[in-house]
Amino acid sequence: MATSNPTFEQAEELLSSRPANLWRDTLRNILSQRSAQVGLVLLGVVILMAVFAPLIAPFNPNAVMLDLGQTRTEGAFRNAPPCIHLLGCSPAYTQHLLGLDSNLRDEFSRVVFGAQVSLRVGFLTVGMAIMVGTVLGAIAGFAGGWADNIIMRLMDVLLAFPALVLAIAIVVVLGPGLVNAQYAIAIVAIPVYARVMRASVLSIKERDFVTASRALGESSAGILWRRILPNALTPLIVQGTLGIAGAILDVAALSFIGVGAQYPQAEWGSMIGAARNVVFVAPWLVMGPGAMIAVTVLGFNLLGDGLRDALDPRLNR
Amino acid sequence: MLRFILRRLLLAIPVLFGVIFVVFALSRMIPGDPCRAQLGEKATPAVCESFLHRYGFDQPIPVQFGVYLGSLAQGDLGTSIKYGRPVTTVLWERLPVTVELTILALLFATVLGVTLGVLSAARRNSIFDVGTMFFANIGVSIPVFVLGLILAWLFGVVLRDSPISLPPSGRFTAGIVPVPLTQAWGLTGLQGPLRAIADFVGSTAILNALLTGQWKVLGDALRHMILPAVALGTIPLAIIARMTRSSLLDVMGLDYIRTARAKGLSERLVVLKHGLRNALLPVVTVIGLSLGGLLSGAVLTETIFNLAGVGRTLVDAITGRDYPVIQGMTLVTAVMYLVINLVVDVSYAYLDPRIRLT
Amino acid sequence: MVAVLGLVLAACGGTGQSTSPSASVSTPPASSGPFTAMTYPEQAVDCTANGYHGEFKQIKAVDEHTVEFDLCYPDGSFLSKIAFTAFQIQDSDYLNQAMANHLILAKPVGTGPYMLSDWTRGDSITLVKNPNYTGDNPPKVDTVVIRWSDQAAQRLVELQSGTVDGIDNPGTDDIATIKSDSSLKLYPRAGLNVFYLGMNNNPKVDGFDNSKNPFKNEKVRQAIAMGIDRQRIVTNFYPDGSTVADYFTPCEISYGCVGDKWYDFDATAAKQMLSDAGYPNGFTTTIALRDVVRSYLPDPTSIAQEIQTQLKNNLNITTTIDVQESGTFLDNASAGKLTGLHLLGWGADYPDQTDFVDYHFGPGASDQFGDKFPDLIDEIKKGAQSSDDATRQAAYEQVNKLIKQHVPMVPIAHGASATAFQADVEGAYAAPLTDERFYTMKPGDREQLVWMQNAEPISLFCGDETDGETFRLCEQINEGLYTYEIGGTKAVPDLATECTPSSDNLTWTCKLKEGVTFSNGATFDANDVVNSYALQWDVSNPLHIGRTAAFDYWGALWGDFLNKEPAS
Questions:
Q1: Which residues of chain B lie closer than 8 angstroms to A169, CB-CB?
Q2: Best residue in C155, C167, C173 to probe A by mutation, most A CBs within 10 Å?
Q3: Which of C258, C301, C481, C565 is deepest in the core (most CB within 10 A)?
Q4: Which domains does chain B have, with CATH numbers?
Q5: What gap in Å lies between CA C434 and CA C241, rounded to an integer?
Q6: Full-model pTM
Q7: Beta-carbon separation of C171 and A263 below 8 A
């Protein structure tokens, strides 16, 4: 009696509950990947930098050194080279690990605080893109027919433009600023997630257990939430992680051109853009934030690679 | 196969229309008016009124869109407000620069990338392999503009007095004036499509110099293009190297490779002849996909190295509210990108019959 | 794929230069056959009819070497205006051939010391010595190559590596580098511009109650004039060579710095005056600006914040900073819609007081500062209409005194810039009007001079251009009746040997140089002058084409066009 006609509740339980160890196993799988390990370490550094920025940075990132009167008179000149006490700079002078930028602000502090901006930008942008993209992809996959066609054509239109070109155009329309740059990059990134979601929906829609659930009276929304989303989660997470790396690069590019973060905000891309004119006399002003962008992007890339290797059962390398 | 191509083409039409609409809408939504941007900020309201009237910008937007569509149908991309010449002319002058840069970057990325990928796969887990993949990872993570600036600084300033110094900007050294193809070959009387192609080739620096035998110009142009091509091509290089390596490793584990080895063929023959050919399939896809990124990156590279290409002109046009140029160049770029994607899809479907059925 | 695109584009629109047949012009060709003197227009314009408020009544060639300009009203700055680059002289035949098909934009023909040899778009322009040049300024080097980059760092690197001989606008941070390099030489350039803090004594905003407007009170404006430490702003934010503006107009311009200097900075007295005016605790207002860098405003947001701090500390005036989009901001300013303070400036078009004070405070000025001041307008008119030195001096002394009294705005700074050259370039300099002439320069024993400026010229027909980078090129190739002296702002004869006014100042007669030919061999005569002016002046002239047919500077300097479309 117990096994021949399972009740709805029992079927539910079988279908929905993943054994708790599955999560633990997945995590262990991820952490065993070398790339994920390195990625997490790098990201750990960046996250620590962002969280403890007020403690790590010796100065307020927007403070102009002239006002503070803490630098040597000859030293408070624009684009002053780094003064590191450990490396021989006289203790009489205030220490500036990466020197001063063109507006007499401490470059090191700005780099440290820039971590907050970049991380926030990366997560927000991808978050927005995923939210909109998954909704569109789900509708397209589920509804099929002309809704699917229209949505996918829209995504194609977005994908028809080289990403940076479209992003620049959108930002110029919305007006320069970091927030608008985030919107622009998010809009450009939507199609990727829409496609991932739609592919997941399509691949699962016709499977037996879905038909079974439907027959048992479960609503579409329920099916979406309980069956499809968990399956789509994996590629979304992988794409999302890689997407954060891309978003950070793209927003930095927009800020470099001048349409992203505005003065005096300490964002790595706009710092490089501001230093562009003095790169030949003060290259460290480009190398500092540039290296940080590279480290952060590398971290997300490695993490994404590790996730993909761990979570995708087809790739057994 | 034909049905596949036709279906793709048919699907591309509404996308193309969508692109045209988006381009038009975006360019008109840019705040600020073209009069001030073109005539300078001291332009009086009266002057601006007649300026806007002359270019039809005072018509209601739907009318302007209709006019735009009509001229597009005739292949007329309009006249640039800034340059006073047809957009197609301006485009034809600047496209060769971008194409040259992109092709050089792609060549650099492909040749070096495939080589490194093959070598890494052949010496799996050796120092070479680990080192190459490490640098490949970094290469993917460095922004194009950072790399470009650092390279310009290194080779233009630090190494200025050494024999390997490279110019940090521009296409030619002052005083070196290239003779375009049409002049060198006496083709100035030519008209029509052939003339257009000749003009295009004539505006390239390297190809033109090569074909007309201007060796000094060729050398100068190459020297100027090295840094931009390397800066632009580094990200695709890293991607292609990684993809080649992983794809080759995948293939090398397959049975038919084992057969080839068992047959007694040399390792090199096994890898290059049997392994590579099949491993290159995903690499081809990756190359096709990189082209979009290359076009985006070209915008930044052209800005840093002061090259007058499509990307740079587009950004200038956006600042200057030069609507015909914004619309025309964005449209052409998008169309090129669509065509490239289509070609990549078709070739991939040709090479892998399973795709055709989706 | 390139081939496909090429086929499509060529089939549809073609890419080469379109050659349409040259427009037929009703005026006789000027340089072939017996000379037929032109008069334009045939019937002199009725200065009072049809809402015409232009300066010219008629322009006529009296004989081959004499031109007469009949004016509707006297103009003391006439010589300064005809020296302006936009009014250089073109060859009549060439105009007929090359205007309608826009060829003249890319292939100019002129009487100047250089002529165009090559224009590689996007990359460089090459000029060579004009073999037909017979003037007083033969070039010292045969070839000049002009390149451009909008990045100061790139310009500096090229200069340091020796690939260029001279650059324009080195960056502020590069000045020290150039000074300390003995192989380079810096030439500071006085700023023919002014940066000011504007106030509106009667904004034109619906529902705005002007009785509550603090800037309506002249004492308030005077208090602000005294309460800003302008020296500190210049020292901290402006490049070397910039000066505090003691008058509205820079001193390099004749009659700019005559009369009383501006108030000294005195925070205590200023606060007292503000209190006496009825604001013992200050007041609250806005500072409007646009975030656009100009030579008069190198760092808009920093300077705005500095002024905000000063107003608070010195006068207890609290402000919020309102950054607007450039075009919107300019529109708001000239429509009188900015109710608080605003930051703006002005760069000289042509070096005369009329370009500065008339535009801002004269009878035709916009509503930027609110209600105009009749006594100031009177003095401005006196200065504009006389060409007598003593009269103009006296008038502008009064103008400066009245500006100081009424304080429509507080002038703050004249922003400097510079050029830099290789130390062995003889004859190098920086021109206040940014019209450096290359014929004075000899680059050591090199055979070509390479110059790098900020941007590519837009076209080479300067009648329809407004951009300084473009004008500099035209100055090498074409000439006007007068020109500006080397390194200065005074107008001196060029193609004319002399232009003299009649006793009522309503007619100017110019005697032209003889034996001058254009680079294409055509002879220069009076009809060329008439045609060059007429095509800009008359909207219905078949040659009124240019690049955009806006002829912006004609309207700004000469007041009005002939046969313009009636305002809708």
A1: 26-27, 30, 318, 326, 330
A2: C173
A3: C481
A4: 2-73 (no CATH), 87-178+214-351 (1.10.3720.10)
A5: 15
A6: 0.79
A7: no
